[in-house]
Amino acid sequence: MGYTNSSLVSYTKLSPNHSGLRTHSIDRITPHCVVGQLTAESICGCFTSPSREASCNYGIGKDGKVSLCVEEKNRSWCSSSNANDQRAVTIECASDLNAPYAMNSAVYESLVKLCTDICKRNGKKKLLWLADKTKTLNYSPKSDEMVLTVHRWFANKSCPGDWLYARLGDLAAKVTANLGSTPSSSKTGSTLYRVRKSWADAKTQKGAFSILENAKNCADSNAGYSVFDESGNKVYTGKKTAATTGGNSKTPYKVQVTVTDLNIRTGPGTNYSKTGKFTGKGVFTIVDESSGQGSTKGWGKLKSGAGWISLDYAKKI
Fold it and tell me: Which of 194, 149, 155, 202 has its CA nearest to residue 172?
């Protein structure tokens, strides 16, 4: 197919860091956090030296302006995965320096517009967020579908940061709506919206609702819960989180770990990388809680600062 570049671009500084023409058609978009409140020009400037050995297709500056670093026809060096970058349009977005690497409204709104434009020019009518690495990488998109992927699935990184990661369902829904398709989250009739801690964790389901607003109200009333459509896409994140509700989420408490080789992770979920350390059957102090992928009881943050553990394998004492 003949590739084009976005008309939203206001600055171009092409990087030498790419692999030439793609070997796969575009059916993925991978947004990144650049870890810095940079301008669109500065993002391109990060990739001008061949010694940098990194690049991206587009950059979105802190004011929402879009820059072109590598033409869409070429594979950028952005996601620590040749297979992903061959088929993905990669976007570096200005963000805060520290976790959760939040992006301002100008950046996020520009990301929605850019993703919409990428989908349109590549003949896609839907943008999907499947919220699961295995499910996504094994999924074969239909000819009119584009899929979101994230850098953290391919490397020991938090990219695109928890701020954007939590909004990828919203991003997919907004882009799909812009494309003139009906997101599965807004279908009527027999569609059910499920309220769970995560799509994979069916045991935590609070209910299934035919009216989206009712599902949102349920999620808002239960800490750490979100609303998922029938395809498993997160369409709404509840207002309450385990870290902002009462009880022991802010009051430190002790737990006895019940297994010898419990992994410590960098964040609250199996989608976060392992630190390479194990707890042993010890007693630990938990200073914070959060829901997250891979645990039915949630995740606990260790007082030592070593990371997070699954509370499925810890007994409160």
Answer: 149
The three-state secondary structure class of 9 is strand
- Per DSSP (E only), the strands in the chain are 9-12, 18-21, 28-33, 58-60, 66-68, 74-76, 88-93, 126-128, 145-148, 193-196, 207-209, 226-228, 234-237, 253-257, 263-265, 274-278, 283-290, 299-302, 308-310, 314-316
What is the dotted CATH code of the domain comprising 247-316? 2.30.30.40
**Residues in the chain, how many?**
317
Q: Under a CB-based contact definition with an 8 Å cutoff, are residues 317 and 254 in contact?
A: yes
Given the DSSP bridges, would you call strands 126-128 and 299-302 parallel, antiparallel or unpaired?
unpaired
135-146 pLDDT, tens digit per residue, is 999 999 999 999
| Pairwise CA distance, residues 185 & 142, whole Å | 19
What pLDDT is stored for residue 183 in this prediction?
55
| Residue written as token pair 């769970």 | 196
* CATH superfamily, domain at 9-178: Peptidoglycan recognition protein-like (3.40.80.10)
3-class DSSP state for residue 133? helix
How far apart CA 203 and CA 193 sit, in angstroms, is: 15
Asked whether 279 and 257 are in contact (CB, 8 A), the reply is yes
Closest CA to 314 of 293, 303, 298, 292: 298
pLDDT of residue 241: 58
CB 179 within 8 A of CB 124: yes
- pLDDT at residue 247 tops 60: no
**Res. 131: pLDDT tops 70:** yes
Domain extents in the chain: 9-178, 184-237, 247-316
Q: Give the integer Cα–Cα distance in Å for 21 and 283.
A: 55
Q: Mapping DSSP to helix (H, G, I), strand (E, B) and coil, where does residue 82 land?
A: helix
Distances (CA, A) of 1 to 8, 73, 232, 297: 21, 9, 31, 48
